[in-house]
Amino acid sequence: MKIAVCSDHGGYELKTKIIAYLGELGHSVMDFGCYSDKSVDYPDFAFPMAKAVATHVFERGIAICGTGIGVSICCNKVKGIRCALCGDVLSAELTRKHNDSNILAMGGRIIGVETAKAITKVWLDTPFDGGRHEGRINKITEFENK
Ligand code: RB5
Q1: Atom 10 of ligand 1 has which residue's CA nearest to it?
Q2: Which of 15, 33, 89, 133 is most enclosed, with most CB atoms within 10 A?
Q3: Residue whose C-alpha is closest to residue 120's, from 132, 105, 139
Q4: CB-facing half-sphere around the CA of 17: CA atoms within 13 A
Q5: Fold for domain 2-144?
Q6: Are the C-beta atoms of residues 62 and 108 closer than 8 Å to each other?
Q7: pLDDT per residue over 133-144, tens digit each?
Q8: CA 60 to each of CA 6, 52, 78, 88: distance values in angstroms, whole numbers, following the listed order
Q9: Domain ranges of the chain
Q10: Is 70 a pocket residue for ligand 1 (Cβ < 6 Å)?
Q11: How distant, in Å, are the alpha carbons of 20, 43, 62, 94, 140 from that of 5?
């Protein structure tokens, strides 16, 4: 899968570990920055990454900041993005099944590396359930298009 990844300084360390893990899983990864733990502003990285997912240059995105909250707010401002902030594996599974989320957000200062890897794996592997959830996604898309 083609996956876009971004972080700010608060998510930088976890992002480097997730990028390595994605490589081990055989995914193709593009890192939209940041590229060190020097203080930066998360919108500068989250918006370009989310736009690249929204325009289908990448199939999915993973955004990491200190809490995951800042990047998730940014990503969800981009039309076509359904970004889910996850701190546990069940939420990661259900947001794929129910929300067809296309960006996963995580908090580098909130969760450990092994939890983040488990969340990432299940989020990438779980398909959208469709069915009754399809109509709900359509309502989000209709709202965006108003
Ligand atoms: C940066 O200090 C921090 O505010 C950021 O990583 C994130 O947690 C914002 O939501």
Answers
A1: 70
A2: 15
A3: 105
A4: 15
A5: Ribose 5-phosphate Isomerase B; Chain: A, (3.40.1400)
A6: no
A7: 999 999 999 999
A8: 12, 9, 14, 19
A9: 2-144
A10: yes
A11: 12, 13, 5, 21, 24
Q: Is 68 in the pocket of ligand 1 (CB under 6 A)?
A: no
Question: How far is residue 60's CA from residue 13's CA, in Å, rounded to a whole number?
Answer: 20
What is the 43 CA–ligand 1 centroid distance (Å)? 10
Locate the ligand 1 atom nearest the alpha carbon of residue 73 and give its number. 10
Residue among 7, 8, 40, 41 whose CB has most ligand 1 atoms within 8 A, to mutate: 8
pLDDT per position as a tens digit, 73-103: 999 999 999 999 999 999 999 999 999 999 9
Q: Which residues contact 5 (CB under 8 A, 6 or more apart)?
A: 15, 18, 19, 22, 29, 30, 31, 32, 49, 61, 62, 63, 64
Extract the tokens encoding 132.
């009754």
Specify whether 65 is catalytic. Answer: yes
* CA–CA dist 29, 146 (Å, integer): 33
